[in-house]
Amino acid sequence: MLEPIKKNWRILLLVVVVLGATVALFAPQFGPQTAPGENASEAQQGITNLQYGLDLAGGTRVRAPLVGYTATGVDFGGDTPVEVEEAVAAELDDTGARNVGTYVEDDARQVEVTDSSVSEEQFRAAMDAAGYGYEDVRAGVTPETRDLAQEIIQGKINEAGLSGGSVQQVQSISGRYFMLVEVPGEGRENVVSLLQERGTVQIDIAYPSDNGTAVQEAVLIQDDFENIGTATQREGTTQSYVPVTVRNTAADGDQSPAQGFQQAVTDRGFQSAYQSQQDRCEYNSETGEIGNDNPCLLLTVDGEVVNSFGMDPDLADSMASGAWADTGSFQLTTGDFATAETISVNLRAGALPAELDISGQGTSSTISAAQGENYKNYSLVTGILAVLAVAGMVFLRYREPAVALPMIVTALAEVYALLGFAALVSYPLELAVIAGFIAVVGTGVDDLVIIADEVMSEGEVNSRTVFDSRFRRAFWVIGAAAATTIVAMSPLIVLSLGDLSGFAIFTILGVLIGVLITRPAYGDILRRLLTIR
């Protein structure tokens, strides 16, 4: 019973691969991941689990560098990275230590500034004034900052409910790194609006002083929040809010963020100022002044005040008694739902370590959904024409259905397996990937023709031994050609060349599937059809 399986295991392996590809393409368990607030049917882009990139689904592509300058080969002079950051920041006007970073790996030491208002000359002067020697200053940020920015941008896309969005780092010919963001099915305005803001959210306190209105900044920052709810609109009003919980944990001997915020609110007199629902915050965002003697909480995004509000009397009493920090819950109130949604996304995803220079050295482009659908239809027609053309030439050459038909079916099985792989890993199909599929069909049939010619060119195949001898000779040629293709395509994967990497990945995968699965399976099929005994 096991003898037929042993003789035809290569054909059975091909069948298993095709069945596995079918499961990956159609089983709901392998459907695309959903973004927050999105259901599975919204994330799925058709009857299959295939995901389509910008070329085939429409959407927006943004390519922009992170703003900043990096000094390389820096001599820290025995100082710690934190001391270096503080010293350099002190030499830059209106630049805090959070906009200066260090990167240390083995013997490589770098210092970066991510403040968009700092020029290269100012950064060089600050490095010199701080007393740190360096080899050179280049435009751009450190690898650590790029990796963090990539992670945060992906988080912003996911939290905003934009399914299928991707972020990667690409390098130009000049060596400058860019963030490449692709969001299928979304307009340029929404994507650029999501990316162009750094997304730094914090709570300040404005309070009356002898010299007018003073501001205590950053009484709460993004890292202080433990739980962030979704944006919610109040019934019957345009006001919206984001429910949050402030973290009440800290290292031994340190004050927790909840306790610190509670103490700041108490010190600024919120309890005495807000004793009834009629007490109001009268902060003027244009002048930066308070119209009465009541302190105000200021909700800021990227340094701009988006809302100011007072405090419920019960909440103020709870903070004054010290009980509020145990729960740490309150609501960030905004004037409209869109602002509340932006704040929720920024708090969940985090603040970008540096701004994206979209309007300067960056570029953005949009493909409409209708245009993407046209590309999809044209790609399907092109693929069908390619298969028909190859099938026609094969039948004209051999005029034997027993040889030509398995050849076409095997080549199509190879493409089907690649589609299953794309669905399994949710790789978005682009025009470059479709080109890779067509290349796989061409090279695959070419290899199968080599097998058929080698086996049939020296006369009748009258035994399995003769077939195996001829098949091995053909397989050596196919293996050498496959190795050449893999070596030629590999640089396209390693180098940051955008869509070309997809072409290379699927061409190499097609070659590997062909050499390891489909070519041997076709050999077994051909052997069964041609051998007499």
Automatic annotation (TrEMBL):
InterPro entries: SecD/SecF_arch_bac, SecD_arc, SecD_SecF_C. Keywords: Cell membrane, Membrane, Protein transport, Translocation, Transmembrane, Transmembrane helix, Transport. It is a multi-pass membrane protein. The keyword Hydrolase does not apply. Coiled coil: none annotated. The keyword Transmembrane applies. Residues 364-516 form the Protein export membrane protein SecD/SecF C-terminal domain. One of its GO terms (cellular component) is plasma membrane. Pfam families: SecD_SecF_C. It is found in: Cell membrane. One of its GO terms (biological process) is intracellular protein transmembrane transport. The chain crosses the membrane at residues 378-396, 403-425, 431-452, 473-494, 500-518. Involved in protein export. Belongs to the SecD/SecF family. SecD subfamily. Part of the protein translocation apparatus. Forms a complex with SecF. This is Protein-export membrane protein SecD. It comes from Halorubrum laminariae. The gene is secD.
